[in-house]
Design a protein that fits this description.
Structural class: alpha/beta
Radius of gyration: 14 Å
Shape: globular
Number of helices: 5
Helix content: 40-55%
Largest sheet: 4 strands, parallel
Length: about 130
């Protein structure tokens, strides 16, 4: 999964261009995330997860590790018939407010990208929004 930073003001135009290019676009917002549990809940609500993530026997209230999130996201991405773009709104807020959680999330997403490339899946791009671009 390629990772790019974009200005938050450019999100609407970016999403439109990606759709025109045949991408499935998912918007993921972590503005209200304050811990691992709320991050996992936001991911489950917004990202293409595999069927296992929606199993009623699986408890997302107390996530155990990033590996499960990566596995579910990889499964969801691998089921897609088109390239996928994830626009991560609030990534800069999470990075400022909880850098450890932000870094763990980036590492988990990077793990998904390596697995996707190795398995020959369609391209996927993660866009991190920034309030201000330097």
């Amino acid at each position: 999964m390629e990772i790019q930073a974009i200005n938050i003001a450019d999100v609407s135009e970016l999403k439109s261009k990606l759709v025109d290019q045949g991408f499935a676009v998912y918007q993921f917002n972590t503005s209200a995330v304050h811990d691992r549990t709320s991050f996992f809940q936001a991911a489950l609500a917004s990202l293409p997860m595999g069927d296992a993530a929606h199993d009623p026997d699986f408890s997302w209230r107390f996530p155990q590790n990033w590996s499960a999130l990566s596995d579910f996201l990889w499964q969801g991405l691998s089921e897609q018939q088109t390239p996928v773009a994830i626009v991560w709104m609030g990534s800069d807020e999470l990075r400022s407010n909880n850098p450890e959680l932000y870094n763990e999330a980036i590492d988990a997403m990077a793990g998904v990208s390596v697995d996707s490339v190795e398995s020959g899946n369609l391209p996927h791009i993660l866009f991190l929004t920034r309030s201000e671009m330097v």
